[in-house]
Predict the structure.
Amino acid sequence: MRNAARRRRSARPYGLVVALAAVVLTIGPAACTAAELTATPANLDSVFGSAKGGDTILLAGGSYGSFEGGTKSRMVTLKPQPGARVRMSLRFNPASNITIDGVTLDEVDIANSATKDIVVRNSDIPGQVIFHTGELANANILFDNNDHHDFSKCDQCAEGRVSLLEHTDQPSGITIQNSQFRGGMSDGISNGANGLRILDNVFHDLVPGTPDGVHTDAIQLFGSKNTLIKGNYMYNVRGQQIMAPDGADHEIIEDNVIAADPDGYPFVISLGSDDGSIIRHNTFPDGSCAFNARCGIIALSAKSGNPKGSGTIIRDNVLGGSIRVADGSTASEISHNLFASPTASTNRNLSGQARFAGGAHPTTYAGYALAPGSPGKGTASDGGDRGIRLTAAAPAPRAPSAAASSGIGVRVLTRLRTLARNGGRLRLVVTVDKARTIVLAGRVRPGRALGGRGGGQARATVKLKAKTVRFSRAGRRIVSFKLNRHALRVLARSRNARLALQAYADAERKQAVRAFKLTIRR
Protein backbone atom coordinates (compact mmCIF):
# COMPACT_ATOMS: atom_id res chain seq x y z
CA MET A 1 0.00 0.00 0.00
CA ARG A 2 2.79 2.33 0.93
CA ASN A 3 4.57 1.57 -2.38
CA ALA A 4 1.35 2.14 -4.32
CA ALA A 5 0.89 5.49 -2.61
CA ARG A 6 4.45 6.39 -3.35
CA ARG A 7 3.87 5.52 -7.01
CA ARG A 8 0.72 7.68 -7.11
CA ARG A 9 2.50 10.64 -5.54
CA SER A 10 5.41 10.37 -7.94
CA ALA A 11 3.04 10.22 -10.90
CA ARG A 12 1.49 13.61 -10.21
CA PRO A 13 4.58 15.79 -10.88
CA TYR A 14 5.36 13.72 -13.96
CA GLY A 15 1.86 14.20 -15.31
CA LEU A 16 2.01 17.91 -14.56
CA VAL A 17 5.33 18.25 -16.40
CA VAL A 18 3.91 16.46 -19.43
CA ALA A 19 0.83 18.65 -19.38
CA LEU A 20 2.88 21.85 -19.08
CA ALA A 21 5.17 20.70 -21.86
CA ALA A 22 2.13 20.09 -24.05
CA VAL A 23 0.87 23.57 -23.31
CA VAL A 24 4.26 25.11 -24.12
CA LEU A 25 4.45 23.17 -27.39
CA THR A 26 0.93 24.25 -28.25
CA ILE A 27 1.18 27.99 -27.54
CA GLY A 28 4.93 28.60 -27.93
CA PRO A 29 5.03 29.72 -31.61
CA ALA A 30 1.86 31.81 -31.31
CA ALA A 31 3.12 33.45 -28.15
CA CYS A 32 6.20 34.86 -29.92
CA THR A 33 5.61 38.59 -30.25
CA ALA A 34 7.17 41.13 -32.57
CA ALA A 35 10.28 42.79 -31.20
CA GLU A 36 11.21 46.45 -30.88
CA LEU A 37 14.80 46.98 -31.97
CA THR A 38 16.86 50.16 -31.82
CA ALA A 39 19.24 51.49 -34.45
CA THR A 40 21.59 54.39 -35.06
CA PRO A 41 23.08 55.74 -38.30
CA ALA A 42 26.12 53.55 -37.64
CA ASN A 43 24.35 50.18 -37.33
CA LEU A 44 21.00 50.41 -39.16
CA ASP A 45 21.99 48.01 -41.93
CA SER A 46 22.96 45.24 -39.51
CA VAL A 47 19.90 45.80 -37.31
CA PHE A 48 17.62 45.67 -40.35
CA GLY A 49 19.35 42.50 -41.52
CA SER A 50 18.57 40.79 -38.21
CA ALA A 51 14.95 42.01 -38.00
CA LYS A 52 12.14 39.48 -38.33
CA GLY A 53 8.70 39.96 -39.83
CA GLY A 54 6.54 42.12 -37.56
CA ASP A 55 9.50 43.82 -35.86
CA THR A 56 9.74 47.59 -35.43
CA ILE A 57 13.09 49.37 -35.63
CA LEU A 58 13.20 52.56 -33.53
CA LEU A 59 15.67 55.00 -35.04
CA ALA A 60 17.83 57.37 -33.01
CA GLY A 61 17.96 60.94 -34.28
CA GLY A 62 20.38 61.75 -37.07
CA SER A 63 21.06 61.48 -40.79
CA TYR A 64 21.09 57.94 -42.13
CA GLY A 65 22.27 58.64 -45.66
CA SER A 66 20.95 56.25 -48.29
CA PHE A 67 18.94 53.29 -46.95
CA GLU A 68 18.63 50.38 -49.40
CA GLY A 69 16.56 48.05 -47.24
CA GLY A 70 16.24 44.51 -48.56
CA THR A 71 13.64 41.78 -48.98
CA LYS A 72 11.66 40.51 -45.99
CA SER A 73 8.99 37.82 -45.88
CA ARG A 74 6.77 39.93 -43.58
CA MET A 75 6.50 43.64 -42.81
CA VAL A 76 9.29 45.40 -40.87
CA THR A 77 8.60 48.99 -39.74
CA LEU A 78 11.18 51.76 -39.32
CA LYS A 79 10.24 54.89 -37.37
CA PRO A 80 11.97 57.47 -35.14
CA GLN A 81 12.31 57.01 -31.42
CA PRO A 82 9.98 59.35 -29.50
CA GLY A 83 11.13 62.94 -30.07
CA ALA A 84 13.87 61.99 -32.54
CA ARG A 85 14.30 63.59 -35.97
CA VAL A 86 15.48 61.24 -38.67
CA ARG A 87 16.60 62.00 -42.23
CA MET A 88 17.42 59.52 -44.95
CA SER A 89 17.09 58.75 -48.63
CA LEU A 90 15.51 55.54 -49.93
CA ARG A 91 16.96 53.47 -52.75
CA PHE A 92 14.90 50.29 -53.02
CA ASN A 93 16.22 48.00 -55.78
CA PRO A 94 14.84 45.54 -54.78
CA ALA A 95 13.10 45.71 -51.41
CA SER A 96 9.92 44.22 -49.95
CA ASN A 97 7.75 44.35 -46.83
CA ILE A 98 9.13 47.63 -45.47
CA THR A 99 7.19 50.45 -43.80
CA ILE A 100 8.85 53.86 -43.38
CA ASP A 101 6.91 55.92 -40.83
CA GLY A 102 7.47 59.54 -39.78
CA VAL A 103 10.89 60.40 -41.20
CA THR A 104 12.25 63.14 -43.48
CA LEU A 105 13.09 61.81 -46.93
CA ASP A 106 15.57 63.76 -49.04
CA GLU A 107 15.17 61.43 -52.04
CA VAL A 108 13.23 58.29 -52.91
CA ASP A 109 14.08 55.97 -55.80
CA ILE A 110 12.08 52.73 -56.17
CA ALA A 111 12.83 50.15 -58.86
CA ASN A 112 12.99 46.39 -59.66
CA SER A 113 10.26 43.89 -60.45
CA ALA A 114 10.93 42.15 -57.12
CA THR A 115 10.06 45.28 -55.13
CA LYS A 116 6.71 44.68 -53.38
CA ASP A 117 4.68 45.69 -50.35
CA ILE A 118 6.22 49.07 -49.49
CA VAL A 119 4.55 51.69 -47.27
CA VAL A 120 5.78 55.27 -46.74
CA ARG A 121 3.56 57.22 -44.35
CA ASN A 122 3.45 60.27 -42.06
CA SER A 123 6.70 61.56 -43.55
CA ASP A 124 8.10 64.89 -44.72
CA ILE A 125 9.38 64.67 -48.28
CA PRO A 126 11.22 67.75 -49.53
CA GLY A 127 13.00 65.64 -52.15
CA GLN A 128 11.89 63.94 -55.35
CA VAL A 129 10.17 60.56 -55.48
CA ILE A 130 10.95 58.44 -58.56
CA PHE A 131 9.09 55.24 -59.46
CA HIS A 132 10.70 53.20 -62.25
CA THR A 133 7.36 51.89 -63.44
CA GLY A 134 8.90 50.02 -66.36
CA GLU A 135 10.14 47.55 -63.73
CA LEU A 136 7.36 47.76 -61.11
CA ALA A 137 4.24 45.65 -61.60
CA ASN A 138 1.42 45.05 -59.11
CA ALA A 139 3.91 46.21 -56.51
CA ASN A 140 1.44 47.14 -53.74
CA ILE A 141 3.20 50.40 -52.89
CA LEU A 142 1.36 52.91 -50.68
CA PHE A 143 2.36 56.52 -49.97
CA ASP A 144 -0.02 57.75 -47.27
CA ASN A 145 -0.34 61.00 -45.27
CA ASN A 146 2.96 62.51 -46.42
CA ASP A 147 3.96 66.14 -46.94
CA HIS A 148 5.61 66.68 -50.34
CA HIS A 149 6.90 70.22 -50.09
CA ASP A 150 9.20 72.84 -51.59
CA PHE A 151 10.76 70.74 -54.35
CA SER A 152 11.91 72.67 -57.43
CA LYS A 153 12.88 70.96 -60.66
CA CYS A 154 16.59 70.89 -61.50
CA ASP A 155 18.19 70.43 -64.92
CA GLN A 156 18.67 66.69 -64.40
CA CYS A 157 15.39 66.07 -62.55
CA ALA A 158 12.18 64.56 -63.82
CA GLU A 159 9.19 66.89 -64.08
CA GLY A 160 7.22 65.95 -60.95
CA ARG A 161 8.07 65.88 -57.27
CA VAL A 162 6.49 62.43 -57.62
CA SER A 163 7.32 60.97 -61.05
CA LEU A 164 6.20 57.65 -62.52
CA LEU A 165 8.48 57.43 -65.50
CA GLU A 166 7.64 54.58 -67.87
CA HIS A 167 4.55 53.33 -69.72
CA THR A 168 3.46 49.71 -69.19
CA ASP A 169 0.51 47.40 -69.82
CA GLN A 170 0.86 45.91 -66.34
CA PRO A 171 -0.71 47.92 -63.49
CA SER A 172 1.95 49.49 -61.33
CA GLY A 173 0.10 48.86 -58.06
CA ILE A 174 0.96 52.33 -56.67
CA THR A 175 -1.36 54.47 -54.52
CA ILE A 176 -0.72 58.04 -53.33
CA GLN A 177 -3.30 59.20 -50.81
CA ASN A 178 -4.15 61.59 -47.95
CA SER A 179 -1.04 63.65 -48.69
CA GLN A 180 -0.15 67.28 -49.27
CA PHE A 181 1.71 68.85 -52.20
CA ARG A 182 2.80 72.44 -51.60
CA GLY A 183 5.46 75.01 -52.45
CA GLY A 184 8.30 74.57 -54.90
CA MET A 185 8.48 74.89 -58.68
CA SER A 186 7.59 71.54 -60.22
CA ASP A 187 4.60 69.42 -61.10
CA GLY A 188 2.93 67.74 -58.16
CA ILE A 189 2.57 64.28 -59.70
CA SER A 190 3.86 63.43 -63.17
CA ASN A 191 2.40 60.12 -64.27
CA GLY A 192 3.12 57.90 -67.25
CA ALA A 193 2.11 54.62 -65.62
CA ASN A 194 -0.84 52.25 -65.71
CA GLY A 195 -3.35 52.15 -62.86
CA LEU A 196 -1.96 54.83 -60.52
CA ARG A 197 -4.44 55.79 -57.75
CA ILE A 198 -4.35 59.44 -56.60
CA LEU A 199 -6.81 59.68 -53.71
CA ASP A 200 -7.85 62.40 -51.23
CA ASN A 201 -4.76 64.60 -51.56
CA VAL A 202 -4.40 68.38 -51.28
CA PHE A 203 -2.42 70.42 -53.83
CA HIS A 204 -1.85 74.10 -53.08
CA ASP A 205 0.50 77.07 -53.40
CA LEU A 206 2.70 75.61 -56.10
CA VAL A 207 5.17 78.28 -57.26
CA PRO A 208 4.55 79.57 -60.82
CA GLY A 209 6.66 78.02 -63.56
CA THR A 210 9.30 79.70 -65.68
CA PRO A 211 9.36 80.79 -69.34
CA ASP A 212 11.93 78.09 -70.15
CA GLY A 213 9.39 75.36 -69.51
CA VAL A 214 9.31 74.33 -65.85
CA HIS A 215 5.74 73.16 -65.20
CA THR A 216 3.82 73.61 -61.97
CA ASP A 217 0.74 71.55 -62.76
CA ALA A 218 -0.88 69.69 -59.90
CA ILE A 219 -1.15 66.46 -61.93
CA GLN A 220 0.35 65.90 -65.36
CA LEU A 221 -0.50 62.75 -67.28
CA PHE A 222 1.76 61.68 -70.16
CA GLY A 223 0.95 58.40 -71.86
CA SER A 224 -0.74 57.09 -68.72
CA LYS A 225 -3.85 54.94 -68.59
CA ASN A 226 -6.42 53.75 -66.08
CA THR A 227 -5.45 56.46 -63.59
CA LEU A 228 -7.96 57.06 -60.78
CA ILE A 229 -7.92 60.71 -59.63
CA LYS A 230 -10.51 60.93 -56.86
CA GLY A 231 -11.37 63.13 -53.90
CA ASN A 232 -8.51 65.63 -54.31
CA TYR A 233 -8.62 69.32 -53.34
CA MET A 234 -6.62 71.85 -55.38
CA TYR A 235 -6.31 75.57 -54.78
CA ASN A 236 -3.78 78.37 -55.42
CA VAL A 237 -2.23 76.34 -58.24
CA ARG A 238 -1.00 78.77 -60.91
CA GLY A 239 -0.29 76.10 -63.52
CA GLN A 240 -2.90 73.76 -64.90
CA GLN A 241 -4.47 71.43 -62.41
CA ILE A 242 -4.96 68.19 -64.37
CA MET A 243 -3.48 68.05 -67.85
CA ALA A 244 -2.69 65.40 -70.44
CA PRO A 245 -1.58 67.26 -73.57
CA ASP A 246 -0.31 64.20 -75.47
CA GLY A 247 -2.89 61.55 -74.67
CA ALA A 248 -5.06 60.06 -71.94
CA ASP A 249 -6.46 56.54 -71.90
CA HIS A 250 -9.50 55.54 -69.83
CA GLU A 251 -8.66 57.79 -66.90
CA ILE A 252 -11.29 58.34 -64.19
CA ILE A 253 -11.43 61.85 -62.71
CA GLU A 254 -14.14 62.16 -60.05
CA ASP A 255 -15.13 63.93 -56.83
CA ASN A 256 -12.33 66.50 -57.05
CA VAL A 257 -12.53 70.18 -56.06
CA ILE A 258 -10.39 72.46 -58.20
CA ALA A 259 -10.56 76.12 -57.16
CA ALA A 260 -8.50 77.79 -59.86
CA ASP A 261 -6.16 80.61 -58.84
CA PRO A 262 -7.51 83.97 -60.09
CA ASP A 263 -4.12 84.68 -61.68
CA GLY A 264 -3.85 81.15 -63.08
CA TYR A 265 -5.11 79.11 -66.00
CA PRO A 266 -8.88 78.79 -66.36
CA PHE A 267 -8.47 75.27 -67.80
CA VAL A 268 -8.81 72.95 -64.82
CA ILE A 269 -8.74 69.76 -66.92
CA SER A 270 -7.12 69.57 -70.37
CA LEU A 271 -7.09 66.21 -72.13
CA GLY A 272 -5.42 65.83 -75.51
CA SER A 273 -6.18 62.83 -77.75
CA ASP A 274 -8.28 61.29 -75.01
CA ASP A 275 -9.54 57.73 -75.34
CA GLY A 276 -12.63 57.01 -73.27
CA SER A 277 -11.90 58.85 -70.02
CA ILE A 278 -14.65 59.71 -67.52
CA ILE A 279 -14.93 63.12 -65.81
CA ARG A 280 -17.76 63.07 -63.27
CA HIS A 281 -18.97 64.60 -60.01
CA ASN A 282 -16.24 67.23 -59.83
CA THR A 283 -16.66 70.82 -58.60
CA PHE A 284 -14.84 73.64 -60.41
CA PRO A 285 -15.97 76.91 -58.75
CA ASP A 286 -16.77 80.06 -60.73
CA GLY A 287 -14.48 83.08 -60.80
CA SER A 288 -12.33 85.25 -63.09
CA CYS A 289 -9.07 83.71 -64.28
CA ALA A 290 -6.30 84.62 -66.70
CA PHE A 291 -7.04 85.46 -70.35
CA ASN A 292 -10.25 87.22 -69.24
CA ALA A 293 -11.91 83.82 -68.96
CA ARG A 294 -14.09 82.26 -66.30
CA CYS A 295 -12.38 79.72 -64.07
CA GLY A 296 -13.38 76.10 -64.36
CA ILE A 297 -13.04 75.08 -68.03
CA ILE A 298 -12.70 71.51 -69.30
CA ALA A 299 -10.88 71.28 -72.65
CA LEU A 300 -10.71 68.32 -75.02
CA SER A 301 -8.36 68.75 -77.96
CA ALA A 302 -5.59 67.15 -80.02
CA LYS A 303 -2.20 68.41 -81.09
CA SER A 304 -1.39 68.52 -84.77
CA GLY A 305 -0.41 65.03 -85.93
CA ASN A 306 -1.83 63.30 -82.84
CA PRO A 307 -4.98 61.15 -82.88
CA LYS A 308 -8.32 62.85 -82.31
CA GLY A 309 -9.86 62.29 -78.92
CA SER A 310 -13.08 60.30 -78.63
CA GLY A 311 -15.30 58.49 -76.16
CA THR A 312 -14.92 60.98 -73.29
CA ILE A 313 -17.81 61.14 -70.79
CA ILE A 314 -18.36 64.42 -68.90
CA ARG A 315 -21.23 64.07 -66.47
CA ASP A 316 -22.61 65.45 -63.16
CA ASN A 317 -20.01 68.21 -62.72
CA VAL A 318 -20.33 71.76 -61.36
CA LEU A 319 -18.40 74.20 -63.56
CA GLY A 320 -17.74 77.91 -63.45
CA GLY A 321 -16.67 77.92 -67.07
CA SER A 322 -17.50 75.79 -70.08
CA ILE A 323 -16.62 72.56 -71.87
CA ARG A 324 -14.56 73.14 -74.99
CA VAL A 325 -14.18 70.40 -77.58
CA ALA A 326 -11.82 71.28 -80.43
CA ASP A 327 -9.36 70.05 -83.07
CA GLY A 328 -11.65 67.26 -84.30
CA SER A 329 -11.93 65.56 -80.91
CA THR A 330 -15.37 64.42 -79.76
CA ALA A 331 -17.08 63.48 -76.51
CA SER A 332 -19.51 60.59 -76.31
CA GLU A 333 -21.57 62.25 -73.53
CA ILE A 334 -21.87 65.70 -71.96
CA SER A 335 -24.83 65.60 -69.61
CA HIS A 336 -26.23 66.56 -66.19
CA ASN A 337 -23.61 69.28 -65.63
CA LEU A 338 -24.29 72.58 -63.83
CA PHE A 339 -22.73 75.60 -65.56
CA ALA A 340 -22.39 79.03 -63.96
CA SER A 341 -22.22 80.52 -67.45
CA PRO A 342 -25.24 80.42 -69.77
CA THR A 343 -25.46 77.20 -71.76
CA ALA A 344 -27.99 75.33 -73.84
CA SER A 345 -30.27 73.26 -71.61
CA THR A 346 -29.72 70.01 -73.47
CA ASN A 347 -28.89 66.53 -72.15
CA ARG A 348 -30.08 67.64 -68.70
CA ASN A 349 -27.35 70.29 -68.46
CA LEU A 350 -28.32 73.35 -66.38
CA SER A 351 -27.25 76.97 -66.04
CA GLY A 352 -27.15 78.58 -62.60
CA GLN A 353 -24.92 79.64 -59.76
CA ALA A 354 -24.11 76.81 -57.36
CA ARG A 355 -24.62 77.53 -53.67
CA PHE A 356 -22.14 75.75 -51.44
CA ALA A 357 -22.45 74.42 -47.90
CA GLY A 358 -19.38 76.46 -46.92
CA GLY A 359 -20.75 79.77 -48.22
CA ALA A 360 -19.69 81.89 -51.18
CA HIS A 361 -15.97 81.15 -50.73
CA PRO A 362 -15.45 77.81 -48.97
CA THR A 363 -12.04 77.07 -47.48
CA THR A 364 -12.41 73.30 -47.16
CA TYR A 365 -13.14 70.42 -49.47
CA ALA A 366 -16.38 69.57 -47.69
CA GLY A 367 -17.47 73.21 -47.95
CA TYR A 368 -17.91 72.75 -51.70
CA ALA A 369 -20.80 70.29 -51.35
CA LEU A 370 -24.03 71.78 -52.67
CA ALA A 371 -26.17 73.51 -50.08
CA PRO A 372 -29.91 72.78 -49.74
CA GLY A 373 -31.85 74.63 -52.41
CA SER A 374 -28.87 75.03 -54.75
CA PRO A 375 -29.30 74.38 -58.46
CA GLY A 376 -28.09 70.87 -59.15
CA LYS A 377 -29.10 69.57 -55.70
CA GLY A 378 -30.45 66.03 -56.08
CA THR A 379 -30.54 66.19 -59.89
CA ALA A 380 -27.42 64.26 -60.92
CA SER A 381 -27.77 61.33 -63.30
CA ASP A 382 -27.50 58.94 -60.34
CA GLY A 383 -30.11 60.81 -58.26
CA GLY A 384 -27.56 62.49 -56.00
CA ASP A 385 -26.05 65.98 -56.15
CA ARG A 386 -24.12 67.34 -59.06
CA GLY A 387 -20.52 68.07 -58.11
CA ILE A 388 -18.63 66.27 -55.36
CA ARG A 389 -20.12 63.47 -53.29
CA LEU A 390 -19.15 63.40 -49.62
CA THR A 391 -18.86 59.66 -49.25
CA ALA A 392 -15.64 59.60 -47.24
CA ALA A 393 -13.61 61.75 -44.87
CA ALA A 394 -12.88 65.00 -46.66
CA PRO A 395 -9.19 65.73 -47.18
CA ALA A 396 -7.64 68.79 -45.59
CA PRO A 397 -4.14 70.26 -45.66
CA ARG A 398 -1.94 68.68 -43.03
CA ALA A 399 -0.14 70.98 -40.64
CA PRO A 400 3.52 70.54 -41.61
CA SER A 401 5.83 69.39 -38.88
CA ALA A 402 8.95 71.29 -37.90
CA ALA A 403 11.01 69.07 -40.17
CA ALA A 404 8.86 70.05 -43.14
CA SER A 405 9.34 73.80 -42.79
CA SER A 406 11.42 75.62 -45.35
CA GLY A 407 12.79 77.76 -42.52
CA ILE A 408 11.33 81.01 -43.89
CA GLY A 409 8.30 82.86 -42.54
CA VAL A 410 6.60 86.07 -43.66
CA ARG A 411 4.06 88.30 -41.89
CA VAL A 412 2.45 91.49 -43.21
CA LEU A 413 2.87 94.64 -41.05
CA THR A 414 1.25 97.23 -43.32
CA ARG A 415 -2.46 98.12 -43.34
CA LEU A 416 -4.01 99.59 -46.49
CA ARG A 417 -5.36 102.61 -44.64
CA THR A 418 -1.83 103.62 -43.55
CA LEU A 419 0.02 102.68 -46.72
CA ALA A 420 0.18 106.21 -48.19
CA ARG A 421 1.11 107.78 -44.82
CA ASN A 422 4.09 105.42 -44.56
CA GLY A 423 5.57 106.60 -47.84
CA GLY A 424 3.94 103.88 -49.94
CA ARG A 425 6.06 101.16 -48.38
CA LEU A 426 4.64 97.67 -48.01
CA ARG A 427 6.39 96.36 -44.89
CA LEU A 428 6.85 92.66 -44.11
CA VAL A 429 8.47 90.78 -41.25
CA VAL A 430 10.68 88.04 -42.69
CA THR A 431 11.98 85.28 -40.38
CA VAL A 432 14.71 82.75 -41.23
CA ASP A 433 16.08 79.77 -39.33
CA LYS A 434 19.72 80.20 -40.39
CA ALA A 435 22.12 82.46 -42.27
CA ARG A 436 20.97 82.68 -45.87
CA THR A 437 20.37 84.96 -48.84
CA ILE A 438 16.92 84.95 -50.40
CA VAL A 439 15.23 86.79 -53.25
CA LEU A 440 11.64 87.93 -52.64
CA ALA A 441 9.30 88.70 -55.54
CA GLY A 442 5.56 88.68 -56.06
CA ARG A 443 2.44 90.68 -56.76
CA VAL A 444 -0.45 92.33 -54.97
CA ARG A 445 -4.01 91.79 -56.17
CA PRO A 446 -6.55 94.46 -55.07
CA GLY A 447 -9.73 93.18 -53.47
CA ARG A 448 -13.28 94.50 -53.54
CA ALA A 449 -13.53 98.27 -53.97
CA LEU A 450 -14.77 100.47 -51.14
CA GLY A 451 -18.38 101.58 -51.51
CA GLY A 452 -18.99 99.50 -54.62
CA ARG A 453 -19.78 96.05 -55.85
CA GLY A 454 -16.84 95.75 -58.17
CA GLY A 455 -14.08 93.44 -57.07
CA GLY A 456 -10.39 93.32 -57.78
CA GLN A 457 -10.87 90.48 -60.26
CA ALA A 458 -10.99 92.84 -63.23
CA ARG A 459 -8.21 95.15 -62.03
CA ALA A 460 -4.56 94.64 -62.88
CA THR A 461 -2.27 93.25 -60.23
CA VAL A 462 0.60 95.26 -58.81
CA LYS A 463 3.97 93.64 -59.39
CA LEU A 464 6.63 93.92 -56.72
CA LYS A 465 10.19 94.47 -57.86
CA ALA A 466 12.40 91.57 -56.75
CA LYS A 467 14.41 92.30 -53.62
CA THR A 468 17.52 90.45 -52.40
CA VAL A 469 17.70 90.06 -48.62
CA ARG A 470 20.81 88.77 -46.83
CA PHE A 471 20.69 87.31 -43.32
CA SER A 472 23.99 86.82 -41.48
CA ARG A 473 22.30 84.58 -38.92
CA ALA A 474 18.93 83.20 -37.86
CA GLY A 475 16.44 85.88 -36.88
CA ARG A 476 13.97 88.36 -38.30
CA ARG A 477 14.02 91.71 -40.03
CA ILE A 478 11.63 94.13 -41.69
CA VAL A 479 11.66 94.16 -45.50
CA SER A 480 9.94 96.97 -47.45
CA PHE A 481 8.66 97.16 -51.01
CA LYS A 482 8.17 100.68 -52.42
CA LEU A 483 4.89 101.06 -54.36
CA ASN A 484 4.34 103.64 -57.09
CA ARG A 485 1.57 106.24 -57.12
CA HIS A 486 -0.73 104.25 -59.39
CA ALA A 487 -0.52 101.24 -57.08
CA LEU A 488 -1.25 103.42 -54.08
CA ARG A 489 -4.35 104.92 -55.73
CA VAL A 490 -5.73 101.46 -56.58
CA LEU A 491 -5.04 100.01 -53.15
CA ALA A 492 -6.42 103.08 -51.38
CA ARG A 493 -9.85 102.23 -52.87
CA SER A 494 -9.72 98.54 -51.87
CA ARG A 495 -11.20 96.84 -48.82
CA ASN A 496 -8.26 94.43 -48.73
CA ALA A 497 -5.65 92.96 -51.03
CA ARG A 498 -3.96 89.62 -51.55
CA LEU A 499 -0.19 89.30 -51.59
CA ALA A 500 1.32 86.39 -53.54
CA LEU A 501 5.00 86.22 -52.57
CA GLN A 502 7.72 83.79 -53.58
CA ALA A 503 11.08 83.27 -51.90
CA TYR A 504 13.94 82.12 -54.12
CA ALA A 505 17.40 80.84 -53.27
CA ASP A 506 19.08 82.29 -56.36
CA ALA A 507 19.19 85.63 -58.15
CA GLU A 508 17.88 84.07 -61.41
CA ARG A 509 14.71 83.04 -59.49
CA LYS A 510 14.83 79.45 -60.71
CA GLN A 511 15.22 77.73 -57.35
CA ALA A 512 12.04 78.44 -55.39
CA VAL A 513 12.14 77.87 -51.64
CA ARG A 514 8.68 78.81 -50.46
CA ALA A 515 5.45 80.42 -51.69
CA PHE A 516 3.18 82.57 -49.52
CA LYS A 517 -0.45 83.70 -49.90
CA LEU A 518 -1.09 86.60 -47.53
CA THR A 519 -3.87 89.12 -46.97
CA ILE A 520 -3.24 92.85 -46.58
CA ARG A 521 -6.11 94.17 -44.49
CA ARG A 522 -7.76 97.54 -44.41
